[in-house]
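Exercise 7. Given the encoded structure of a 98-residue chain, write a plausible sequence.
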């Protein structure tokens, strides 16, 4: 299971961008807490103390499309990919190797 920045497919970028700007500000404390509370519920424990603020060379805020995340997982031998949660900027994906 991982959480990463995600963007829309190029063909849907215009409509996605319009929808994204109608969503709550991700830097608003209530929005941040609501999103992470949903992630913690999926995980079954509070992992927020593990979050780091330093730059670890991760993908930028724009991310990559969800379909590309799934393709990357499948090409690495993971199966049963499922998007568990999606916000305007992030997604949580679960997958398993056979």
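Solution.
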């Amino acid at each position: 299971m991982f959480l990463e920045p995600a963007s829309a497919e190029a063909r849907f970028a215009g409509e996605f961008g319009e929808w994204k700007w109608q969503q709550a500000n991700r830097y608003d404390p209530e929005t941040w807490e609501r999103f992470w509370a949903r992630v913690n519920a999926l995980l079954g424990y509070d992992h927020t103390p593990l979050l780091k603020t330093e730059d670890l060379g991760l993908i930028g805020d724009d991310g990559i499309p969800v379909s590309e995340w799934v393709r990357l997982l499948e090409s690495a031998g993971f199966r049963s990919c499922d998007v568990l949660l999606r916000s305007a900027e992030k997604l949580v994906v679960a997958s398993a190797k056979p």
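Remark. Residues 2-96 form one domain. Students should compare their own answers with the one above.
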